[in-house]
């Protein structure tokens, strides 16, 4: 028995609640599938040194120079140990790191050529997916816009719940 099974709510609210719980499960599954898709692509092209979370981190940093704190602030990697992954990526030569001149406690990171290569592999993968989704009629521009808009509204709601808890 799950939490969903134990909920007893009136008609339309029960339907909405079930839809909400289905959406939560889907978001969680999509995140895991995204990591699996990246892992499979890396196996296909022979990249075995880093994992999918680290590859996604490199992709999201791209051409920017950032701190671990900025990555967390942007909403990335809440569930993973950002500092650990950044250190591993620096140690493996995927990133440069440098202490901030203003705040010596803070370290700024940027991609090396090796890191940019991995970011490019992920970018190409996502590009192929975008073309495939559109070409096969899975999701067109309007559908993608609707999905993104709805997810951003949920993100905003959750952010407000955290920010204004007291």
Automatic annotation (TrEMBL):
An annotated GO BP: response to stress
One Pfam family named in its UniProt record: HTH_27
Recorded GO MF terms: DNA-binding transcription factor activity
InterPro entries given in the database record: HTH_MarR-typ, MarR/SlyA-like, WH-like_DNA-bd_sf, WH_DNA-bd_sf
Domain HTH marR-type: 20-156
Record's protein name: HTH marR-type domain-containing protein
Source organism: marine sediment metagenome
